[in-house]
Design goal:
Length: 446
């Protein structure tokens, strides 16, 4: 590594004990070993001699996330002795920090710094997580004119071909013929036909895990149309679908011994003469009727049909991901997903997985006292609550109506978008909770 520049992880004590020869330079640079901050140390010949990076306690995934973009485009290596876990986390953060979405830019992007991974890094895991995360980010960042239901199907088909999985697609009026009326009702006003993507992979005798993702490729709000500001970011309303496709890619690439099924209702919530209307009453795959209190609460409708189908195989674990409610963002902000879970042991395992992978989620309760807020005078259930508050909970309770009580179920309500750039997490589309969900599946089912 004679041509590579060493990176040292330092705190205040290490600055004094190991790098005191550079005290004058550190003083001029005002470097205080703040977590993730970096300081370039020149050698006597004017070349870059080493880099100091502030060391958090404990080390986390994001320690090198900022350095991965900000350091000069040289080759680097980690000079400290690290445990396998720490080395893997640091290299993953570096890798995630190098993401760029430049598909629509004509100008060539500047070169990035390179990191030589230590020998004890779990390279397969780092590369698989990075590829899966980049897939999620790319799908969400792609504008809706290039990421409609057809393009989402093409992505699923590519995944199926890559991993020798089976993909079945039910599209257009076939959805009603095969009893997915809610998916059809939400998407029928779009020029691109609504569809259900059904991917299956793995040994049929292995434990079953089923993923369901909200694939609303653009959400105008329907006839209850959104404002301009509310509609602006709605290309990301398929973030749940992107996340389960990314999670599926990770599971298949690392060959977890599970029987995987991924159900993705892919639609656009558009406005046309045949769009569903407020107070329409719609049938569902389960057989119960749903009153459309608001056409902008469409995500839960497409998920309902998919969730009921998911239960038909009685999986050992059922997970859905959706950019479902603004109420969840009000509760926890945009950077921490909300999750709901019908199985206490699963909820505890997921929360632990999130903490250990630096991919935090936080549980909210399935408060059954709020279920009456979904009562309808003309149908079995309404798709919106009669109350102003607790919207994330009532949305989860609506979904729970379409999940059999004996199946451990996790519902993740995520933003799917970074409003600000953080180390390793640039502004834009984002996988939120995906690594934690992968770890949950690995622990519970394998």
């Amino acid at each position: 590594m004679s041509d590579a520049v060493p990176i040292f992880l330092v705190d205040e004590a290490a600055l004094k004990s190991q790098h005191s020869a550079h005290e004058a330079w550190l003083t001029v640079s005002r470097f205080k070993a703040k977590a993730g901050a970096s300081c370039l140390i020149p050698g006597s010949d004017g070349r870059l001699e080493k880099v100091l990076v502030g060391k958090p306690d404990p080390l986390d995934t994001w320690t090198l996330g900022k350095a991965a973009q900000s350091l000069p485009p040289c080759r680097y290596y980690l000079a400290d002795a690290l445990t396998d876990e720490a080395a893997t986390k640091l290299c993953l953060g570096w890798k995630l920090g190098q993401y760029q979405f430049s598909k629509y830019k004509q100008k060539e992007q500047p070169p990035l710094p390179e990191l030589t991974f230590p020998d004890n890094v779990d390279r397969d895991y780092v590369e698989a997580v990075a590829a899966s995360t980049f897939l999620v980010r790319d799908l969400i960042n792609t504008p809706a004119n290039d990421m409609g239901p057809q393009q989402l199907e093409e992505c699923a088909r590519t995944l199926a071909e890559t991993h020798q999985a089976d993909l079945q697609v039910i599209s257009g009026t076939d959805l009603t013929a095969q009893q997915y009326p809610l998916i059809y009702a939400v998407g029928k006003a779009s020029e691109q036909a609504p569809r259900l993507l059904d991917l299956k992979w793995g040994d049929e005798t292995a434990p079953k895990v089923t993923l369901v993702g909200k694939g609303v490729c653009f959400d105008s709000g329907g006839l209850d149309v959104k404002s301009a500001s509310g509609m602006k970011m709605m290309k990301k309303d398929m973030g749940g679908a992107a996340q389960v496709l990314g999670l599926a890619h990770l599971i298949m690439r690392l060959k977890l011994p599970v029987r995987l099924r991924v159900l993705t209702p892919a639609v656009e919530n558009s406005i046309a003469g045949n769009a569903m209307r407020p107070l329409d009453v719609l049938p569902s795959r389960k057989g119960i009727t749903v009153e459309v209190g608001n056409t902008d609460a469409e995500g839960r409708l497409v998920l309902a049909d998919a969730l009921w189908e998911a239960c038909s195989e009685t999986p050992k674990l059922l997970i859905d991901c959706a950019t479902l409610t603004g109420a969840a963002r009000v509760a926890l902000g945009t950077e921490m997903p909300v999750f709901f879970c019908s199985h206490p042991a699963t909820a505890t395992a997921l929360q632990q997985s999130g903490q250990e992978t630096d991919d935090l989620l936080w549980q909210l309760p399935l408060n059954q006292a709020y279920r009456s807020m979904l009562d309808s005078k003309v149908a079995d259930i309404s798709n919106i609550s009669s109350a102003m508050y607790g919207g994330a909970i009532t949305a989860a309770l609506f979904l729970q109506e379409f999940v059999k009580s004996d199946i451990p179920w996790v519902h993740v309500d995520l933003m799917g978008w970074n409003l600000r750039s953080l180390p390793g997490r640039p502004e834009g589309g984002e996988a939120m909770g995906m690594r934690a969900l992968f770890e949950l599946i690995r622990r519970v089912l394998t």
